[in-house]
Specification:
Low-confidence stretches: none
Helix content: 40-55%
Order of helices and strands: HHH
Mean pLDDT: 76
Largest sheet: none
Strand content: under 5%
Number of strands: 0
Length: 66
């Protein structure tokens, strides 16, 4: 995963390392994951991780996650 300034801010905001995620609902965790996976990344040529995954899955001879 490529870490840009926004990612460091996001990680600092949530303090992943010291956060008890049991305090979040599944819906809240889904929102956090969606925001992270739909944010364009410079290291991905401004594509989102979700777009890159979809491209890899579509073009891969091995079905990822299925």
């Amino acid at each position: 995963m490529c870490m840009g300034e926004d990612d460091r801010i996001d990680l600092a905001w949530l303090e992943w390392k010291d956060t008890d995620l049991s305090g979040y609902t599944q819906r809240e965790l889904n929102v956090i994951a969606h925001r992270r996976n739909t944010r364009p990344r410079k290291c991905l040529d401004f594509a989102t991780p979700l777009e890159v995954y979809a491209q890899l899955r579509h073009h891969s001879p091995i079905a990822l996650g299925t």
